[in-house]
Fold these 2 entries.
Entry 1:
Amino acid sequence: MAYFVDQFVNGLTLGAVYGLIAIGYTMVYGIIGMINFAHGELFMIGAFISLIVLLLLAQLGVASVPVAILITLVLSAAFTALWGYVVERIAYRPLRGAMRLAPLISAIGMSILLQSFVQLVQGAGQKSLAPMITGRVVVGELDGQPVEIAVVRIVIIAVTLVLMTAFSLFVARTSFGRAQRACEQDQKMAKLLGINVDRVISLTFVSGAVLAAVAGLLYTVYYGSIDFFIGFLAGLKAFTAAVLGGIGSLPGAMLGGLLIGLIEVFWAGYATAEYKDVAVFAILVLVLLFRPTGLLGRAVVEKV
């Protein structure tokens, strides 16, 4: 049972990272009806910026872990948000009125470009970071054995819950959130009502990039090792999470991320690690066979 609890918390931790990335996928799809396949690379860029800033702060003698992480969070979010804006301006805005296949190809090209750029600048090898958040907390006792949870896992889950709650309130109760929902429903009507559609779409890309940067920081602190290819794998899992939860639904993206993380960890822990990805996609297929819109997705009704 103690092993089960440890794996459960591990799955929630991994799923929280997937969920943060998945929100970016689902927001972009909700507003322009397309998948941003370069979003995984934004997560990777956020992870590399976080690693670089943390190493620089260590060289400068910043010994306080909370201060270092806070500074890193701000800088990583700022630079990754800039990259998100660049992706929207270069890969999507010029092709907004084109056939739907053109932006898809453009996004894939941008993904390959960002991946290759980081590989050339940072190299193809693994980049490592010494553990920053150590220690374990005893949360109870089972069968005479203490149940311990690593502090870093508690931090990641707590940060994700706070971010998800704050972001949901931001989308639901602010003027930007109302403008975003209006653009999701009808961009032409939103423009006629005075909403700057280009600005809303750009800020949506930026918001998703900020969440990807946070996920990149959490991933770097948790695993302590990154490379230029992590964006592809994590992005694919996060996209799967968005589809599983219901593409276009923010709670669905987070739910899908948590489920993907739990499935992956439990399959690796109780079955075989080699087939954990097979299990994830097999369960996705089974869910979509019975609920094509995902767990929390809703069928889209088109007026003709």
Note: The longest helix spans residues 2-32.
Entry 2:
Amino acid sequence: MSGAWDGIEEFVSVARAGSFTGAARSFGASVTHMSRSVSRLEARLGSQLFHRTTRSLSLTEAGRHFFETGSRLIAERDDAIAAMTASSSPRGHLRITCSYTLGEQFIGPILRGYAQEYPEIAITCDLDNDVVDLIRDGYDLAIRTGHLEDSRLVATRVASRAMVTVASPGYLAEHGVPLRIGDLKGHACLMGSNSLWQFARGETFRPEGRWKANSGIMVLEAALEGMGLCQLPRFYAAPHLRTGALREVLSAECPEDEPIWAVYPRPKHLSPKVSTLVERLRAELQGRLSGEDIPATALTG
């Protein structure tokens, strides 16, 4: 049985690292071992898995398919072993990804508590505002918002977030307060990652303006400086709404709260390390979003 696995873990490590040297370092083996293991695997499969040049290494089409399959096999093997152990306590390496602000301010504290309670867990948390491929990149769990499309994934709702439309008092004094969604036309809109602003009854508005950033903090700071209107999750704006540095507009047109999901690859056996963390997120995240807003200094320092 061991022969069937020969080279698979080495191949997956090389594909993730993007080089034999990086993979050897993380795998704890020599570069020669990694190279020979992958070569033997290619010979056994009868397919070239990598395009190799003196300067670059990239997956072939066959390599991309086998990487996805191999990553899943390794994860399912490890999860099956964990599920069959005498102890149901979470253990092993947990890789998680989420957006920067959500991760730094809300998910991070939950993960720290989780790691302290379960000393046999090792956690890697990668913050990325882009949607990554969990299966291809070997993640156990992601925190995502909004509509989900990948049928290979399971999603559990762990919280929700409210959206608000805001501007500085100075901007509103100079340019007027929009009273209807249609009034937003002609206003300077500060745009984030979403191409459409959402409102009640499913209405939408496509913002236009001179400022766009894939960082909520950058959008928020532009609003604080009077550059225009923006729509953001309430936890960004809450401390500034309390101090009066921002004012909410169109409050009667607020959309329904946006779901926040814990997303993970569809498993044959859900490992304790994932199931336990998902339950913790369900128990703690909403309270943090609702009651522990980001301090104003954290957002504007």
Note: Confidence is low (pLDDT under 50) at residues 292-301.
